[in-house]
TrEMBL record:
This is Major facilitator superfamily (MFS) profile domain-containing protein. GO terms for biological process: phosphate ion transmembrane transport. The chain crosses the membrane at residues 16-40, 52-73, 80-101, 113-133, 145-162, 182-203. It comes from OM182 bacterium BACL3 MAG-120531-bin86. It is a multi-pass membrane protein. It holds the Pfam family MFS_1. It is found in: Endomembrane system. Residues 1-213 form the Major facilitator superfamily (MFS) profile domain. Keywords: Membrane, Transmembrane, Transmembrane helix. One of its GO terms (molecular function) is glucose 6-phosphate:phosphate antiporter activity. InterPro entries: MFS, MFS_dom, MFS_trans_sf, OPA_Antiporter. GO terms for cellular component: endomembrane system; membrane.
Length: 213
């Protein structure tokens, strides 16, 4: 299959568009880590250095989830993956909702900061398996010898979404009380990511059953 034929094959597949949109939504959620030091600095009056250290819990959550998720992923069936990653993304929505509740209270004490840092860890832990693992596995199985091209197309769509959010999110956060609206955007995006990725995983599961029939 030539490159042009491969691209045509990809874009005719509903699974391609679902994984692309799902990863794009997750890429937007990952952009939160770019804003985290500023968010913590402005919300809790942390010095930039301490805000940077506190925000590193997001990356720690990603590290723990991806490392452990790689072992777990191989042992799960495609059907159980729907529930596992669906639950993981639901936890991401819950962590953002709790972050917004903490922000609404307006308290900036040590307890609130500790809870915020823990929620940031949970958020990174919750979104990273859905971001990294399904796309890689799908690209190899669906893309075949053109898996590199498929990864490039999906990543390009994802980075476009992330780039667009950086402009929009920055403008929203810059307003008075804008961080609450900023987190609300992330909540909506997280809900969309959960719906899209769950739908993708279901279609992928159904396709595998048809292939084995």
């Amino acid at each position: 299959m030539k490159t042009r034929e491969a691209i045509g094959h990809f874009i005719r597949s509903p699974r391609f568009w679902l994984i692309s949109l799902g990863v794009s939504a997750l890429a937007v959620l990952f952009e939160f880590q770019v804003f985290l030091p500023i968010y913590l600095s402005e919300t809790y009056d942390l010095a930039p250095a301490y805000a940077g250290i506190a925000s590193s819990t997001f990356s720690l959550g990603c590290l723990v989830a991806v490392f452990s998720g790689g072992f777990i992923y191989d042992k799960l069936t495609k059907k159980s993956l729907i529930y596992a990653l669906g639950l993981s993304l639901t936890l991401a929505v819950a962590s953002l909702l709790l972050l917004r509740v903490l922000g609404d209270q307006g308290s900036t004490g040590a307890l609130e900061l500790t809870l915020t840092v823990l929620l940031i860890f949970l958020f990174g832990f919750s979104i990273s398996p859905a971001y990294y693992i399904p796309m890689s596995v799908f690209s190899i199985s669906f893309g075949g010898r053109h898996c590199g091209l498929l990864v490039g197309l999906i990543d390009a769509i994802a980075y476009f979404g992330a780039m667009s959010f950086d402009f929009i999110g920055g403008a929203v956060a810059n307003k008075e009380g804008g961080w609450q609206d900023f987190i609300l955007i992330l909540i909506v995006t997280s809900v969309l990511a959960t719906i899209i990725m769950t739908t993708f995983l279901y279609l992928d599961y159904r396709h595998s059953r048809q292939g084995n029939a």
